[in-house]
Amino acid sequence: MANEEDDPIIQEIDVFLARSLLEKLYLFQYPIRPASMTYDDVTHLSAKIKPKQQKVELEMAIDTLNPNYCRSKGEQIALNVDGTCTDETSTYSSKLMDKQTFCSSQAASSVSRYAAAVYKKGELHLTPLHGILQLRPSFTYLDKADAKHREREAANEGGDSSQDEAEDDVKQITVRFSRPETEQARQRRVQSYEFLQKRQAEEHWVHLHYYGLKDSRSEHERQYLFSQGHGLAENTELIKSPSEYLMMLMPPSVEEENDKPVAPSNVLSMAQLRTLPLADQIKILMKNVKVMPFANLMSLLGSGTDSTAVLRCIQQVAMLVQGNWVVKSDVLYPKDTSSPHSGVPAEVLCRGRDFVMWKFTQDRWVVRKEVAAVTKLCPEDVKDFLEHMSVARINKGWEFMLPYDEDFVKKHPDIVQRQHMLWMGIQAKLEKVYNLLKEHLTPKKQEAQSAHPLLVSGEQRVNMAKAKVKQNYGQLEKEFQKQKAEIKSNDTSAKLDVSNIRIKEEPLSDEEPMETSAYEGMNNGIVNGLHAEEDSTDSLNSHLPGGCIDRVAQELKAFVSSTFKKQFVLTLSELKRLFNLHLASLPPGHTLFSGISDKMLQDMVLDTGCKQILVPFPPQTAASPDELKVYALWEAGDTYDQHRQVLLEIFSKNYRVRRNVIQNQLSQECGEELNKQEVDRVLKDCCVSYGGMWYLKGTVQS
């Protein structure tokens, strides 16, 4: 109250809002001139405007009689610009620089808070501004002078040349046809600086008439700065409470998005990055960095980030290569995109880049020519793949850019194992697409690999197994408590002790283990979660409770049963590949990770009602032992069981058969004439066609 008494109100002024010049009133800010010269004294020769761009050009006369004007300098500038001849195209027709051009630029992106005010007879009239333009001198005449100078030099050089050199020579030209422009290319072109400049240049100038300060037309237009009516109907926007009026007059200063500097689309500050969800942060980081150790990724995400959540998200956008994370190909090359070099679709690019990544899982070195020969892609695309994850070494090839991350591999064996199984699935696809030879599949020995040997001692294997048991301790303890409760309910006296859990140390059997590991040293004994011991049941009994064994068998039986109901015929090699993919989709610590051997998998196949088909492969076959073992579902419980059994009997005697032989045999054995649709259904379930002959699934030798 004391402050209000010290600052009394001495006058109240009515405020009116004038609308006559709404969206037509601009404020021009001229350069500073001497106080002795006002803009009313300056003669405006011409004015023009581009309304859409709010761009203005004013041409003003220069007082050449002013004592401060240097006449010799003005004559020299006119001579440099126009030369000695004068015509209609001359900039300075008087052979003297007697005018100057001013070009405008926007002083503020938003002028909604600015208005022009006129005070008259105790009333304040406000007119909102539509734009604020700053006028600066234009020096385009200097460009014209430079062009004239270059023309004169070219003319002099041409005059000194001989007559023979002046004659037109026959020159060879190259005709190129541009390929159709894609939608993505068109969007990039429309957003380019060159295109925007071209569009701005295409807008036509609108010529204006300039009226001086004391002109009658200016006086007439100046009257529109006053509100035409003082009634309430004309000024309803100003009938506000004091606080609302102040809010309208001076809204709170909020930093607009348009005022912020526009960064390139691929640049994002760390402050902006950390406002995004964790999955988006990881995707953006991996897309830009492409290869990163897990420790570096955690440091970029900031303190307090849950490493488990990061591990869950990173597997969605990246693959593990030599203990480091490499961004997935489909993240870099989304669907419906193409190569900027060759126009190859994204699907082919992803396949080629996956081959490069897979090669780096086998070896620290990759040869560019070998990649190009296998993928059949252009050298520029192959170079892009290699530059994403490796560095070129003279006379050696391309080396993976980061060292092998042993710390991550030791701390997260489950992640390593799961990623390895994913790579096995990718390898199987690459083998089919590129028809890879054994020389492509066998990793080359390099001196650089001596830093992490491939062979693992028995003691190290036991330590790895013990570490895995400790990691799964929580799950094992739950199983123990559950079984203990069951034993008590059955009044049995048997007791179990978790401390008795041990990893059975046995020598490997002669049975061939699953070929599922390129890093056999890292996974000796436990290959993709599948134990290679012959007596798999005994191995499981030695370190798992009885209830857990039953769960493993149930899970395995469910997988085998559902797989054969979809496929009907599978080789052991294909079944193991599907099992690896199934394991990769399971969460860490699942019961199936306890270890499944070849023998246990084959026994379960036979237990689910399948039979082994002894296909008579040709003697010169190059198939592996797992590819020679063919299993088929004998009874699926549908009306085609008998037909499939007859078909399987045919292939137990023949490696390949013609369709007419199969159809005649089916009709003869089943006692009825089968139509084409029924025969197609049976063949589709069990066979594939190749070169006019029919083979059981997985037995075709290309």
UniProtKB/TrEMBL annotation:
<feature type="compositionally biased region" description="Basic and acidic residues">
    <location>
        <begin position="146"/>
        <end position="155"/>
    </location>
</feature>
<dbReference type="GO" id="GO:0042797">
    <property type="term" value="P:tRNA transcription by RNA polymerase III"/>
</dbReference>
<feature type="domain" description="DNA-directed RNA polymerase III subunit RPC5 C-terminal">
    <location>
        <begin position="444"/>
        <end position="702"/>
    </location>
</feature>
<protein>
    <submittedName>
        <fullName>RPC5 polymerase</fullName>
    </submittedName>
</protein>
<dbReference type="Pfam" id="PF04801">
    <property type="entry name" value="RPC5"/>
</dbReference>
<feature type="region of interest" description="Disordered">
    <location>
        <begin position="146"/>
        <end position="169"/>
    </location>
</feature>
<dbReference type="GO" id="GO:0005666">
    <property type="term" value="C:RNA polymerase III complex"/>
</dbReference>
<dbReference type="InterPro" id="IPR045576">
    <property type="entry name" value="RPC5_C"/>
</dbReference>
<dbReference type="InterPro" id="IPR006886">
    <property type="entry name" value="RNA_pol_III_Rpc5"/>
</dbReference>
<dbReference type="Pfam" id="PF19725">
    <property type="entry name" value="RPC5_C"/>
</dbReference>
